[in-house]
Design brief:
This protein is mainly alpha-helical. Helix content is 65%, strand content 2%. A hairpin with a 5-residue loop joins strand 1 and strand 2. The longest helix is centred in the C-terminal third of the chain and has 40 residues, at 106-145.
């Protein structure tokens, strides 16, 4: 009995979920083929549930349609779940803050205001740090583009300078 190695029949439920999720995200097979670097025929096989893509192709598809690979295969998206869980936590926190303010305790209200002010300062610092990190990355990129090369004698030479004349004299400027 001959058996193909390395190939297994995918779970029909995963194939169906993948096919439905993929179809809901694409304009045409040709559109996805162009964006993901695969053939329209392959896209057709995926959207009709005939096959599942290899991991590298699944990755390209997920990037092309801006969806997670997990969502494509299962319909579940942990990032979205985390987002909604975070929103619920924020809602509950707001309710708690409202109750604290309603209590009318001036000392507690002032402490709450102080904490909110400190939080705002922290957020501003984080934003400033991210901005500085972006600036540093841009400077590093520009330095990499404009790097001076070291010649065989170990001296720095500007790659944009005109070569010296054969007599070694400098050109007059002006």
């Amino acid at each position: 009995m001959s058996e193909k190695r390395g190939k297994s029949k995918p779970d029909p439920e995963i194939t169906k979920t993948f096919s439905e999720n993929l179809k809901s995200c694409i304009k045409t097979n040709d559109w996805l083929a162009g964006k993901a670097g695969i053939s329209p025929q392959a896209v057709s096989e995926y959207t009709t549930g005939k096959s599942l893509p290899r991991g590298d192709i699944l990755y390209n598809i997920s990037k092309a349609i801006d969806k997670s690979m997990e969502w494509l295969l299962t319909g579940k998206d942990p990032m979205a779940d985390d987002f909604w869980a975070g929103r619920e936590a924020a809602r509950l926190m707001c309710e708690e803050i409202i109750e604290i303010v309603k209590s009318g305790d001036a000392g507690v209200i002032q402490a709450l205001k102080n904490n909110i002010d400190e939080f705002k300062k922290s957020v501003k610092k984080d934003e400033k740090i991210r901005s500085l990190e972006d600036d540093i990355s841009e400077i590093k990129r520009q330095i990499g583009i404009n790097k001076k090369k070291t010649n065989s004698t170990g001296q720095l030479s500007d790659t944009h300078k005109k070569p010296a004349t054969s007599t070694g004299s400098k050109e007059k400027v002006g």
